Amino acid sequence: MQATPFIMECFPKTLDEFRTLFHSEEISLQFLFSKRWPNGFECSYCNWENKDQLPSKTMTCSHCGHPTSITTDTIMHGTKKPLSQWLMSIWWLTATEGGHSAKDLQRFLKLSSYQTAWTWLQKLRMAMAVADNKPCRETVELSSENIFFGGVPPAKATILAAAEIILPAGITGRIKMDVIGNLTQETVNTFLENNLLSGSSLIVPNYEAYLDNNRKNFITITSSSIYRTRDLLKSFEIWLNKVHRGGVANKHLQLYLDEFCFRRNTEMLPDKESIFNLLLAGVISRKSFSYKSIISKPNKE
Ligand SMILES: [Zn+2]
């Protein structure tokens, strides 16, 4: 017997609709199974395909005997919480505007542990970074600013930002932002390598860190009118201090940048369902994650 694919006929627009649709752990499992293995189960160890495998939380490969679970190698790896809670978190993050603190998630899911809520949000931010992985391309403005956040005295971080300029309208397209140690030619080149499509044209301030004569893969044009990325960095600073109220440590700042970029970039998608599916793809992707980097001391948000 072949597994029947789960088909979502109507994307839930409200929390009540969501709860009605994903009313049981079994339904959540079927949904996640069909999203993770749309063409039938495939062993992550030997790649053996078994299209007859029915949705199950744990499976043993009939070819190599390797055990797998629905959450193996995803950001949900090792979770003891219901799958429906993960789906509800993804839905909530993508259906609502602005961003949320770990306390908000703790209240929303009625979790007893702040630490769990904080770790889940950090993992979901990692999934956002995985999902929102298209580089900026063609004409791209670049600049950096110091931003200040947190308590008294505030922490400081240098952020490098890129924003596509979509011509001829001149509107801002995709954005990318990274924490950098210092603004140097080396950090700029690393940022370009990670975030921009080779061959793009760069619009940059007239400052030596942006002007590397040995850079071959980009055309660099200086401009005195750099405002897109500066506005973005200012918006990020306001968002960070408003939503997270100073509870963010410098070592975790990149994840908050990833969420900010994900939210901005997905504004271009046609509907909430597309954003939900994109984040879900990041959640169930087999990209390996460094858990140690996030499961350290949470900050109070
Ligand atoms: Zn196998």
Verbal overview:
- By secondary structure, the chain is of the alpha/beta class.
- The chain folds into 2 domains: 15-131, no CATH class; 139-255, Ribonuclease H-like superfamily/Ribonuclease H (Nucleotidyltransferase, domain 5), CATH 3.30.420.10.
- The chain has helices at 15-21, 25-36, 83-95, 102-109, 114-131, 185-195, 228-243, 253-265, 272-284; strands at residues 41-42, 49-50, 58-60, 67-69, 139-149, 155-166, 171-180, 201-204, 219-222.
- The strands form 3 sheets. Strands 7-6-5-8-9 form a 5-stranded mixed β-sheet, sandwiched between helices. A two-stranded antiparallel sheet has the order 1-2.
- A hairpin with a 4-residue loop joins β6 and β7.
- The longest helix is centred in the middle third of the chain and has 18 residues, at 114-131.
- The protein is globular.
- The model has no long low-confidence stretch (mean pLDDT 91).
- Zinc ion binds next to loops.
Number of helices: 9
Bound molecules: zinc ion
Strand content: 15-25%
Alpha-carbon Rg, integer: 21 Å
Number of strands: 9
Note the main sheet: 5 strands, mixed
**How would you state the average pLDDT, rounded?**
91
Q: What is the structural class?
A: alpha/beta
Describe the strand arrangement of the main beta sheet, using strand numbers: 7-6-5-8-9
Order of helices and strands: HHEEEEHHHEEEHEEHHH
Silhouette: globular
**Residue windows where pLDDT falls under 50 for at least 5 positions:** none
Into which percent range does the helicity of residues fall?
Answer: 25-40%
Distance between the termini: 49 Å
How many structural domains does the protein architecture include?
Answer: 2
